[in-house]
Amino acid sequence: DRRDTVADLPARQHGATAPASPDYLRLESLAKRFGETQVFSQIDALIAKGEFVTLLGPSGCGKSTLLRAIAGLNSIDEGRIVVDGEEITALPPQQRGVGMVFQHYALFPNMRVTDNVAFGLAMQKVPQEERRRRVDEVLRLVELREHADKFPHQLSGGQCQRVALARALVVEPRILLMDEPLSALDARIRRHLRQQLRDIQKTLGLTTLFVTHDQEEALLMSDRIFLMHDGRILQQGDAEALYTRPRSHQAAGFMGHYN
Ligand code: ADP
Ligand code: MG
User: Which ligand has its closest atom nearest to the C-alpha of 65?
Assistant: First the structure.
């Protein structure tokens, strides 16, 4: 009972473990150029509700640009992005119901943890009382309640990234996008956060697209992996399928077979 490709998904709908919405996030024929450079093209993918998918590929292959396109932080030239049946391709970022976490946290240095986390709610004009309740809830989820009144410079890198995660979660996004969120952290913190991130993601049933260039991280964390190379998705599958049955020598190389 394994999902090797998007084409295998319909067969699973009859099984007890079939996802409720196998196409919760749809990427249809996405393409993007910067001037003469074709950054990505022919990006087609379905992500199920609650699934944790990792976009894995070497530096420069287009991962960040693709993630930013889904978030609405950069435009695309071709294709459609659909979340839960609603096309979001042309919507501004704050109307997409998408939360994003960046490698270098991107916190407001002059704001306390609570205000960093509450930022999106303030933008949405959520009343003060509800804002306080929801911020408290997500800070508990990321285990940072006792640091609520601190400023970013008083926190470790791992704590800053948990603030960034809380800030993304507080608006209850339909999709969580994370661009190398663990890459700036030291190995011990990174291992701990992998687990915590996965626990939170499963608890919330949150549909997640996670970007990394770290093959081990992808193998350990993902329900499925999209292997990206030169602006294309080479292969999609679970960790075992990609590792044991790479379909191209680029895929095999990137899964570590030539080390
Ligand atoms: P990755 O995240 O996989 O390292 P990126 O999406 O950052 O890759 O970059 C993919 C390609 O697009 C690279 O060749 C990069 O130089 C180019 N690129 C990214 N952003 C821009 C930009 N704003 N203008 C021009 N080229 C860009
Ligand atoms: Mg990148």
Answer: 1
pTM of the predicted structure, to 2 decimals: 0.91
Average pLDDT over residues 166-188: 96
Query: Is residue 37 lining ligand 1, measured as CB closer than 6 Å?
Result: yes
How much of the chain is helix, strand and coil, in % rounded to 5? 40, 25, 40
Is residue 39 in contact with ligand 1, taking CB distance under 6 Å?
A: yes
Q: State pLDDT tens for residues 143-155.
A: 999 999 999 999 9
217 vs 72, 86, 178, 212, 221, CA distance in Å?
26, 31, 13, 7, 6
pLDDT at 23 over 80: yes
Q: Does the CA dihedral 138-144-147-152 come out positive or negative? A: negative
- Element (DSSP H or E) covering residue 225: strand 224-229
Residue to mutate (ligand 1; options 32, 36, 39, 179; most atoms within 8 A of CB): 39
DSSP state letter for 202: H
Confirm if 138 and 166 have CB atoms less than 8 A apart. Answer: yes
Res 16: pLDDT: 53
Residue 188's H or E segment, with its range, is: helix 187-204
Q: Is the pLDDT of residue 162 over 80?
A: yes
Q: What residue owns the CA closest to ligand 1's atom 22?
A: 34
- The bound ligand whose nearest atom lies closest to the alpha carbon of 55 is 1
Q: Is the model more confident about 123 or about 245?
A: 245
Question: How high does pLDDT run on average in the chain?
Answer: 91
